[in-house]
Design the sequence.
């Protein structure tokens, strides 16, 4: 399970909408299973089908997480035109151990959907998203 405050949940959706029609990406930080921080990242691929985070931004966020005494809980990205489920590429590139992979779908722009998954060695396990 991952717990996301309502304001951060809304910011993830806002980020996805502001980047449409391209995929957006970011990092969620917090403690245990509760998110307390969101870091919008640049999708250096500038694509509507995949994303790559800017390495300098990633390094900067990792330093900030450490300084704040929180952990990386999740990597999020959007699917502008497809469901909120990991693509084959998402599964292949899920290389960060111990984090959730949060996907926001804008397939129906009026009803965005956020889902979360654990992905390990190609095995995808859905996890509950609790909006607080």
Sequence:
């Amino acid at each position: 399970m991952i717990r996301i405050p309502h304001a951060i949940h809304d910011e993830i959706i806002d980020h996805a909408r502001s980047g449409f029609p391209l995929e957006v990406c970011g990092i969620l930080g917090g403690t245990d299973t509760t998110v307390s921080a969101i870091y919008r990242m640049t999708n250096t691929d500038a694509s509507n089908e995949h994303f790559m985070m800017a390495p300098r931004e990633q390094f900067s966020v990792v330093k900030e997480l450490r300084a704040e005494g929180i952990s990386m809980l999740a990597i999020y990205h959007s699917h502008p035109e497809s469901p909120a489920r990991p693509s084959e590429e998402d599964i292949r590139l899920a290389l960060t151990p111990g984090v959730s992979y949060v996907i926001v779908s804008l397939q129906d722009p009026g009803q965005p959907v956020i889902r979360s998954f654990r992905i390990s060695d190609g095995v995808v396990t859905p996890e509950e998203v609790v909006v607080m």
